[in-house]
Request: fold
Amino acid sequence: MDQFTQLTVDALTLGSVYALIALGYTLIYGVLKLLNFAHGDVFMVGSFIGFGVLQLLGGTDNPVVPVWALLVIITFAAMAGCATLGVVIERFAYRPLRDAPRIAPLISALGVSFFLANSMQLLFGADPRNYNTFDLSNGALYLRGIDIGNVRVPLLRIITIVAAFVLMVLLWFLVNRTRTGKAMRATSFDREAAAMMGIDIDRVIVFTFVLGSALAGAAGVLFAVRVPTTVSIGFVAGLKGFTAAVIGGIGSIPGAMAGGLILGFAESYTQGYVSTKWSDLVVFSILIAFMIFRPQGLLGRPDISKV
Amino acid sequence: MTDSTPHSSSIPASGPAVGQDEWVARHAARRLMPVGPLRTVEERLRIVPWWAWLVLFIAAMSLLPVVESSGYVRRVGFDTVLYMLLALGLNVVVGWGGLLDLGYVAFYGVGAYAYALLDSDKFGVHLPTLVAVPVVVVIGAVVGFLLGLPSRRLTGDYLAIVTLFFLQLFQTVMTNGDSAFGHNLTGGPNGILRIDPLHLFGHDLTVQHQGVFAVSYFYVALGFFAVVFVALRFVNSSRTGRAWRSLREDPLAAEAMGMPVNWLKLMSFSFGAAVAALTGTLFAALNASVFPLTFYFVLLITVYTMVILGGSGSQPGVVAGALIISPLLEMLRDPGKSRIIFFAVLIGGVGLAARRSRTLGVAAAATIAFGFAVHELARAIDASWVSGEKAGGFAGAVDHWVVHPAQLASWIPPVSYIGLIAATLLVTTLHGRLRLVALVPTLYLSAFVWENVMLAKPEPARYIVLGLILIALMILRPNGLLGERRVEIV
Amino acid sequence: MALLELQGVSLAFGGLKVVHDLDLQVEEREIVSVIGPNGAGKTTLFNLITGIYRPQAGDIMLDGASIVGLEPHQISRRGISRTFQTLRLFLNMSVKENVMAAAYGHTRAGIFRSMLRTPGMRREEREIEALAHERLAFFGERLMGYRWDQPAFSLSYANRRRLEIARATATNPRILLLDEPAAGMNPAETHEITELIAKLREDGGYTILVIEHDMHVVEGISDRVVALDHGIKIAEGSFESVATNEKVVEAYLGLNTAATK
Reply:
């Protein structure tokens, strides 16, 4: 029972990070019909921005601001940095290809992903970067927490999970309850028709990249406060986020959240009950099962192709 | 009427206007009417049949070990032929089938591992080469077929995710395969060692001959290449090849015209996989060892860059892509050659661009002057900023122009590198005189970054170059060097 | 027995009935026009016959055998071919290859025979090429000569429509479904298409089902006219009887939309 509780907490932590990444994929796919392979690397850059700002603020052992402010600042810095990065990528690598054959932006995206990962390695090397969050307030974020049975859920875990879910709820409101959100939904439904209705498509696309990349940046920090980050995490993180988006139904926001959590649970339980080595195989099997039995994903709509 | 004279204002100068027969007529006429000596040569060369080109090419390649005795160069030559094979295989899937197969290099790995298991001390199996190679090819095709099955109905995007995940899964399985259900199947991260060399006509093909890379593998690889090239070319001009290209163009119309699209997709997919697996046997036999990490994202991007650069869909194109990228990547390992390549590209690029506009020539001259000025200024402020000079040669000459500090402060690489990216992007958005003015410091900054940041770390630097090539190609010339220009109406 | 027979075919997307309880019979070597306002379900009817959509109720019979549930390429091999309203050529392939590709269904050479260029395979290739020449020559000079090797995207709109018809006939069909063959053509070209459809039946012996908006074309070619509205057959018969049918006039002019219920 205790193991189950522990694994469930792990699953929620991991799943919420995957969900945040998947949301970026889904948002961008929604408006551009583009699988943004560079998204995982934006996530990686986010974790490094968080690390850099953390060092600027004195590091975890001697921060110049209170702990809560420190966490908020590094998260927002990563979000802002990644949003900028996302906008730059869209402007220079994808926008010139908007009317090109569909395979062109995909390959450009592969190039961007490869470029980002190797640029980061060029500048910062392949060494892992550890936030050392245990040093914050003498380990209070780890030692204090909520007890469920015999398991203590550390404060840091609770903070990351809650933060991720707050971001998701905010996103949901933004997309479903604001004018810009409505423009996004219209664009994703039919770009040309939306343009004819007076929606500035370029603005909507830029805004989508801002949102998606900012979520990736936040995910980068939420990931790296627990686990050391390296320049090579982008590939696998991107792949998992991408899979989560597809399982949930690409283009669907609740789908991406559900997909991320499903992946988190699948990985966590496999690692706990079967073996740490074969979680990829389980996730792959889930993906294949969805491809065969429900290709539109959990919450996606089946595609009625118009002839 | 010459090429440069606009025929009418309604025809855009950028290229073929979609759906204008008049344009076709003119285009055909223009093709027959050479402008300049290059066109004449091109017209003459058109008469030579494709197989004569192939024979010439193979003959030229065969001379490599004759004129070059260095084992290193021969080894690079062998690797290049492997890349040519890989590019041919990927061209079947991406160029003809139009399927985005991101797990392609995993099939290369499947081939290498399959050969390793069938011909090594690992399980004590030692199949004869003439049995093992076909078996491995069939294994590659079958694995490709099975992977294609669940994704066959789906569009490119879903295929991309399934295949990319397959690449990751291949890593996981090979890395953890040393303890699968208590058995050591794949050797894990340590790979499989002591793989048998190829055994043909009663001889073991040795890798080393008197301490130098033996040429036998090079010729075997070249032979494989010739066979694969011809076989695929024949398939392309058959009903299967036409069907592949039809489904790339419009799967629904292809289906309605009697082509079993799902089956054809699977065929193209597993054919590509079979070629990759075949190449894998050569790789494993030559290296006598296989490790999981060889078959990963880096190799995938490398092969994709070759195919895209050469022109996906064109067999000579993808071969040319491999011929360019493979030696380029090798040379970028070495700072001396890497520096020469950079300046050659820089000068060549500016020179080509200057032919179109005089002002660019001015910008080039300004950049040179700018460089000397900055160099002198830096020396005047602090001599250590330019003291990283090396004696003599090209490197020494360059160091009279590029600021090269003896000791780089830790903030310089990120700031200059990110500054360079920002400056480059800025230059692409500016127009007219402003662009020229911005170009001067940007060019100089690029030289500074190359000298001080990139050369210090060749490994990421050369992959950065690959990534840049991919992005720039997609934007500037998506059809690559030799590919046909494509039109897509959505 | 009718060559093609639809019995009570229905299809709905969500709650929208696109085709409802449709009966249709087409006799051998007959030319039948399908007319109706936009959204009447005409193209959907073609998609149902060619297997792109599957009917939710009813049956579609070719020569007395049901073809419901077959894949489109299987239906094509049984002798039904079509053109597309929106033109779906293989744009980056040459004119000749567009037609040659459509011979896939009735040719045999497999991949390995192609690799080895066996004599049988080479003979078949020559036959396919001859077939392509013949099908393209049907349109006179328009698709001949240097245009054979031009990419399809370079063709004019009218020539693309012609190429689509040539491609459709290269599958050796018994029934040709033409989706608005005269759309976007000028009067001279439209007139030519009218004659051409008649000639297709004369020379090729095809049974032709055609969707057309241009009433001159419909009048010129049809043995029989079927009018659809909101997925329901509202009239059927000779051109004169359908054209003067009250429901048809209402459907087009919208005098009383309730009449279609």
